[in-house]
Amino acid sequence: MNKLLVTIFLALLAGGVHSELAWKEVHGARVPVPPAVHPRLYLRAKHISALKARREHPALAPILKKLADRSKRRPDFKLELDAIEYLINGDRELGRRTVHDTLEFLKKAKLPDRHDPCRTTGRNMVTGAIVYDWLYPLLSAEEKQAFIKELIRLAETMECRYPPVKQGSTTGHARYALCRNSDL
Known about the structure:
Blueprint: H1 3-13, E1 22-26, E2 29-33, H2 45-55, H3 61-71, H4 75-89, H5 92-108, H6 118-134, H7 141-155, H8 173-180
Antiparallel strand pairs: 1-2
């Protein structure tokens, strides 16, 4: 998670967002039921009004500059910064463009051919989840399904797969490391 998001959300959540979690079974895994509101990932609607003031705080100026520079090279940073901008200003045109660009980003995302590729895939999934949640009111039914399809496709490439597989001596971190470091 980049520094802007961490800084903003730690500050916003310092007051606490507490609620009883409900749980359900999905594809053999026990998962929490998310709240029936959007946004719900990292912040709630009541926090949005504070985002602009926090973004303009002088202590964040060097971080914002660094993130703006990185967003020129990293599409995930750009998409997340655009999502924050949409939350702050409600620019529908920017929001629609961000939804479109994020779906294209997710569709092109592949498991990289390098050591520990799941970190990249997971990072891409976080970007997709942020845009899906924060721009939810702008999404058509077809776009919602496209986001879900792409996020599941990416989750299937992760080490524990989707739905998650049981970890043991032949699966999991130890087996993953063995496969990466041998000719098996």
